[in-house]
Design brief:
Elements lengths: L8 E4 L15 E4 L9 E9 L5 E8 L7 E12 L9 E14 L3 E15 L6 H7 L7 E4 L2 E4 L2 E5 L2 E9 L4 E20 L3 E4 L4 E4 L13 H4 L8 H13 L5 H9 L10 E22 L3 E22 L6 E2 L21 E2 L4 E22 L3 E18 L13 E2 L3 E15 L4 E12 L23 E13 L4 E23 L10 E27 L2 E14 L4 E6 L2 E9 L13 E11 L3 E11 L1 E2 L25 H7 L4 E2 L2 E14 L2 E10 L7 E5 L7 H8 L9 E4 L4 E9 L1
Antiparallel strand pairs: 1-2, 3-4, 3-38, 4-5, 5-6, 6-7, 7-10, 7-11, 8-9, 10-12, 11-12, 12-15, 13-14, 15-16, 16-19, 17-18, 19-20, 20-21, 20-22, 22-23, 23-24, 24-25, 25-26, 26-27, 26-28, 27-30, 28-29, 30-31, 31-34, 32-33, 34-35, 35-38, 36-37
Length: 743
């Protein structure tokens, strides 16, 4: 929401280093908030949209450079809406930025920037094909009416103010010293419904309770559930379920309030709304020196340190009419193992209390970066090197019943990672028309902090087999600037190795569990994930007339898994871990959107300060993300651990085939107009995306509920699977329009 204040940016091409850090494989962006570099004046703008929010108001004032070396800038914005394109997606955001500069003599420049930005957004849900056919593209299962108002159960809130201080010292005409400090703190939370409230039966030391899943798309509420047995379908109940879902199909808040008010569980609420909340604090300091050596060489060196600490917990937001909530895992019948905190057993929590889980994470990082550049009349060459050392630790504030003692409580063992990074590249200009660019990368990154612990909310256990991720990249680009056109052709190769991932889900058809069980809520840990990305990109721009340009862009890529990562499961339902060996993902397409994209467009710029641009865009080769557990040995074993005797290899191959999503086409139109009236500047901008209102899937994922051949075959042979893939759908026709006044 601070677009105008952060409009000045330096952009660095993918895989290219920057003067400030080594960067990664994607684009690098440096947002410049120095007040003295902003355009002097006052600007006010307003916008209307139907995508994420409905309205935006924004104002920005910049003083320009004043006497005695001062400059300042202020910007504020408000974005709001009852819902965007998806139903029930309420939005509220307000932002403020203040930036002050001070020039001290000819050598020192100081800048302080403060950003305060609050954002609340109602989230939208993915859908199975069955749900989409019943409710349409704008459906969202996360909301329901409460007193005639739409209330979303999945709201995401972020408030993390940022303070930055920058100091630049011009030592002489060749050498500049830069010092930087950032401090960020705040809270982010994501709400969800809990339906596991209950009570403790003291006589038997068991826990009873729990309610029906309030999700209107829960599989037992859909028509397919009553048609699940092809030999004995219940058409009557299926019809009633379909009618109820079509006419309502939203969360029933009144029903949950009624259940809590009339609960038989010692006044304990059955349903509750809580936040997964994180309070965090981040700081970083770095100091760097850039200097020119002769006319052609320049060197930049930097030392940086940073720290990140956070506390994460469940926060009871609303008891929905109830008086208290029993802080246990109601799905674990053993009262001791069910305790969220053995030091406070059977605790009753109230609104605004912490409960369920509570832990702290701490990360410390030290890094050194060196970049050298050589520039001649025709050739520019750079080399960047980085070394980073990272230390991670977890501190459990609750003693979880399933992980007693130091398994959950207290500080974990520290986990250290050291990583190296290397980037090199060149630009060679054969002449003004023919240019060749190349970048080569070898980058190592420590694992993401949330992927270091196998069940981070309740356990100090570190993921087994965790390694530093290594990324290799190479790209080559040719630019041809002809008199009658300009064109570019590039190719790239990326290899990403030893990544890790943790997922949570409920699975049926597991083997190797205790007491002949075959179902459990599990944490799936994948290590040793390799991905390979290759592709070609082409663009051409042709001036057809004085003010008309014709543009063509094509991107053809291939992103696949390049290894068979190791997979194991952990859970409160069983001791230790369940090692399922390799997940045979090699050769499957990696998720991430369409791998082929093409665009053809025209742009007209009038000498009367208005312009219009239109483009046809075609996307193809999007794939549903596969479920790794169904590609392990568990898929071929019965629940007793023996091989499935009647397994048909051809059927198994069909079951494990990766779904390709249909290609889609959309048409976008963008235009604008500006005016100058004395010292006033006025501007109008408007865009319409997907003008043809195409309905398309942008991505999706297989559900991991059906974990072996028998359960997956049973589900997929149904006309309407109970646990089919869930999809993300693109927007229909959306618009954005804004108007500004600048003085």
């Amino acid at each position: 929401g601070l677009n105008d204040a952060l409009r000045q940016q330096e952009k660095f091409a993918p895989m290219q280093s920057s003067p400030y850090d080594l960067g990664g494989l994607s684009y690098g962006i440096n947002m410049i908030s120095k007040a003295s570099l902003q355009k002097k004046g006052l600007k006010f703008s307003s916008a209307l949209s139907n995508k994420n929010y409905q309205s935006r108001i924004m104002t920005t004032f910049s003083s320009g450079s004043l006497k005695h070396g001062w400059a300042y800038m202020f910007s504020a914005s408000l974005r709001f809406g009852d819902e965007g394109f998806r139903s029930g997606t309420n939005y509220k955001g307000y932002s403020f930025l203040a930036s002050v500069d001070k020039q001290l003599g000819d050598k020192h420049h100081l800048n302080a920037t403060f950003i305060y930005a609050y954002n609340l957004k109602g989230r939208s849900s993915p859908m199975t094909q069955e749900v989409y056919e019943l409710k349409g593209i704008a459906y969202n299962s996360y909301w329901g009416y409460q007193q005639e108002q739409k209330r979303n159960s999945r709201e995401k809130r972020i408030l993390e103010p940022i303070f930055q201080f920058n100091h630049q010292y011009q030592l002489n005409s060749k050498t500049i010293i830069r010092n930087h400090f950032t401090y960020q703190y705040g809270t982010r939370g994501s709400s969800r419904l809990d339906y596991g409230g209950g009570r403790l039966l003291k006589e038997s030391e068991t826990i009873v309770g729990g309610g029906m899943n309030p999700d209107p798309t829960y599989y037992q509420k859909l028509p397919s559930y009553f048609l699940r047995d092809p030999n004995n379908p219940d058409f009557g109940r299926a019809y009633l379920a379909e009618r109820e879902f079509r006419e309502n199909g939203q969360i029933n808040w009144n029903e949950m309030y009624g259940a809590n008010i009339n609960t038989p569980f010692d006044n304990n609420a059955v349903y509750a709304l809580y936040d997964d909340q994180q309070d965090s604090e981040f700081w970083s300091m770095n100091s760097g020196v850039s200097t020119k050596v002769g006319k052609q060489f320049s060197i930049y060196g930097q030392v940086a340190i940073s720290g990140n600490s956070s506390e994460s917990y469940a926060y009871m937001q609303d008891l929905l009419g109830g008086k208290g909530y029993l802080d246990v895992d109601s799905y674990t019948k053993n009262s001791l193992e069910a305790q969220s905190d053995l030091r406070n057993p059977n605790r009753i929590v109230f609104e605004h209390d912490k409960f369920s889980y509570n832990y702290e994470l701490d990360a410390r990082q030290v890094g050194m970066y060196l970049n050298s550049n050589y520039s001649s009349k025709k050739t520019d060459v750079y080399l960047g090197v980085e070394f980073v050392s990272v230390n991670y630790s977890r501190k459990g504030l609750y003693e979880n019943g399933a992980y007693p003692g130091p398994l959950s409580l207290g500080k974990s063992k520290a986990t250290d990672f050291q990583s190296l990074g290397l980037k090199t590249g060149f630009v060679h200009k054969f002449n003004g028309r023919h240019i060749v660019l190349m970048n080569a990368n070898y980058l190592e990154n420590a694992p993401i902090l949330n992927h270091v612990f196998s069940n981070v909310r309740v356990s100090n256990e570190v993921v087994k087999g965790l390694k530093v991720c290594a990324y290799q990249g190479l790209d080559l680009k040719y630019v041809w600037r002809h008199t009658h056109f300009s064109a570019a052709l590039s190719g790239y190769y990326l290899m990403l190795t030893d990544e890790s991932k943790i997922s949570f889900y409920y699975a049926d058809g597991l083997t190797g569990l205790e007491n002949a069980a075959s179902s459990a809520y599990v944490q799936e840990v994948l290590t040793g994930i390799d991905r390979q990305n290759t592709g070609l990109e082409f663009s051409v721009e042709v001036p057809l007339l004085t003010n008309v340009k014709f543009k063509v862009v094509a991107a053809v890529g291939r992103s696949v898994y390049a290894s068979n990562p190791d997979l194991y499961l952990s859970s409160n339902a069983f001791e230790g871990s369940l090692n399922l060996g390799q997940s045979f993902l090699k050769g499957y397409y990696a998720p991430g959107g369409p791998q082929h994209a093409y665009s053809i467009g025209l742009e007209y710029s009038s000498p009367n300060y208005w312009w219009l641009s239109g483009s046809f865009n075609y996307f193809d080769k999007s794939f549903v993300s596969v479920a790794p557990i169904t590609r392990t040995r568990n898929f071929f074993l019965d629940t007793d651990g023996s091989p499935i005797y009647n397994l048909d290899p051809n059927i198994a191959e069909d079951l494990l085939d990766q779904e390709s999503l249909p290609a889609y086409l959309n048409f976008n139109l963008v235009g604008g107009k500006s005016w100058k009236i004395k010292n006033w500047y006025l501007g109008l901008f408007a865009s319409v995306n997907n003008l043809s209102n195409s309905m398309y899937k942008t991505g999706g994922f297989e559900q991991s509920r059906t974990a072996n051949y028998l359960t997956l075959k049973e589900d997929k042979t149904r006309e309407k699977p109970l646990f089919g893939p869930k999809y993300w759908f693109g927007y229909g026709t959306t618009f954005f329009t804004s108007f500004y006044i600048r003085i």
